[in-house]
């Protein structure tokens, strides 16, 4: 484990590594086991493969060090097969019939499906947009406040500390979907949240080849309920995915630094273009989210969003790009972009583009984007 004062790069390359042992690898390979040798009375740590796996244990320690570097022992992490598995685990393990929950109205596009399921189980669902503190008027009698900041795809930001204070004063727990920021961009537990939840399919693993999610929390009882939910639903990551994720953490700092710098450079280049409206990047000094983002985030993420005049122009723009794949998801080392309206569900204009900035050379990427914009003029 790295010292609490270590830098992000040092922590990223060492996170979760076991004590060095002669003839053992630095990062042990994936452990493939449905069951473990277990003579006599059954007791942990490793009994059956749906309950625990040593490869998860190392990854969970690593993510815990990144989410709570000041107190990694005091926080626990549970990894899941996907971000949605992690989100569902918090919602369904912490809420029961008769409870009320406040969800973002402008968050991840699967949340409306979750909302239907929560309602079917007798949980009252209220919604509020991410920006503007509208959550405050929905908190009375609520059991859980769910925040997604920056929100996907609108990139609005809310003041986590302020909302946590208000929620805790009313007895409500707070969970933050930290997918877009990653723990190098923002540490929700340090801002007072009870749960930091993420889809690690995105920036945390960063190569577009693994689905994974995690939940980090300080309260052992609440985390035990989340772990129990994983066992009940079997929403477990494969050992290979867990190992790939751990291996990817070694480059997290390098990737995030490069991608955030590229995202800012792209946003600055787009800001001067007449066909671009509604440009959003929380790291851009003039962005409406910037003041709150600057106060609680350490890096501003790899996603830039903007609107082109119409659907046709947005489609041609995506078709013209040579270094940027037309694909969904975000946070990967290869730039991708998509016209978000093609999915339905998000309240965005037809020409709205969500751009996930990769680790290319910024000159090449920006030249490609400006060339594609010129081509659709
Ligand atoms: C992608 C995403 C999810 C869902 O993650 P999966 O790994 O696809 O299940 C949840 N929240 C946000 C903000 C996301 O971007």
From TrEMBL:
Its cofactor is pyridoxal 5'-phosphate. Belongs to the trans-sulfuration enzymes family. It comes from the Bacteria. The keyword Lyase applies. Coiled coil: none annotated. It is an enzyme of class 4 (lyase). Pfam families: Cys_Met_Meta_PP. This is Cystathionine gamma-lyase. One of its GO terms (molecular function) is lyase activity. It comes from Streptomyces pyxinae. Its EC number is 4.4.1.1. The keyword Lyase applies. SUPFAM superfamilies: PLP-dependent transferases. Residues 1-28 are annotated as: Disordered. Keywords: Lyase, Pyridoxal phosphate.
């Amino acid at each position: 484990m790295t010292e609490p004062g270590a830098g992000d790069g040092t922590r990223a390359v060492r996170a979760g590594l076991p004590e060095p042992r002669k003839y053992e690898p630095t990062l042990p390979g994936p452990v493939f086991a449905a069951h473990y040798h277990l003579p006599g009375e059954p007791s942990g740590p490793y009994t059956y493969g749906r309950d625990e796996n040593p490869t998860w244990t190392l990854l969970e320690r690593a993510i815990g060090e990144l989410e709570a570097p000041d107190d990694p022992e005091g926080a626990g992490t549970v990894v899941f097969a996907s971000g949605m598995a992690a989100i569902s685990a918090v919602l369904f393990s912490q809420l029961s019939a008769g409870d009320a929950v406040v969800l973002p109205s402008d968050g991840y596009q699967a949340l409306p499906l979750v909302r239907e399921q929560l309602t079917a189980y007798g949980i009252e669902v209220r919604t509020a947009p991410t920006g503007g503190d509208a959550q405050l008027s929905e908190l009375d009698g609520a059991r859980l406040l769910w925040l997604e900041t920056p929100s996907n795809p609108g990139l609005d930001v809310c003041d986590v500390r302020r909302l946590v204070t208000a929620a805790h004063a009313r007895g409500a727990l707070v969970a933050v979907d930290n997918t877009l920021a990653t723990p190098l961009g923002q540490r929700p537990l340090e801002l007072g949240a009870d749960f930091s939840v993420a889809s690690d399919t995105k920036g945390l693993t960063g190569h577009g080849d693994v689905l994974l999610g995690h939940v980090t929390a300080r309260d052992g009882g609440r985390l035990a309920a989340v772990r129990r939910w994983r066992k009940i639903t079997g929403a477990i990551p494969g050992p290979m995915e867990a190992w790939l994720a751990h291996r990817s953490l070694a480059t997290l700092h390098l990737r995030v630094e490069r991608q955030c710098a590229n995202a800012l450079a792209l946003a600055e280049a787009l800001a001067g273009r007449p066909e671009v409206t509604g440009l959003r990047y929380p790291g851009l000094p003039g962005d409406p989210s910037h003041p709150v983002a600057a106060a609680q985030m350490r890096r501003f993420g790899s996603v830039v969003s903007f609107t082109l005049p119409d659907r046709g122009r947005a489609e041609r723009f995506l078709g013209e790009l040579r270094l940027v794949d037309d694909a969904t998801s975000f946070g990967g080392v290869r730039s991708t972009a998509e016209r978000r309206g093609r999915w339905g569900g998000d309240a965005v204009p037809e020409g709205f583009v969500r751009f996930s900035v990769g680790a290319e050379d910024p000159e090449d990427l920006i030249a490609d984007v400006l060339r594609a914009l010129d081509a659709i003029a």
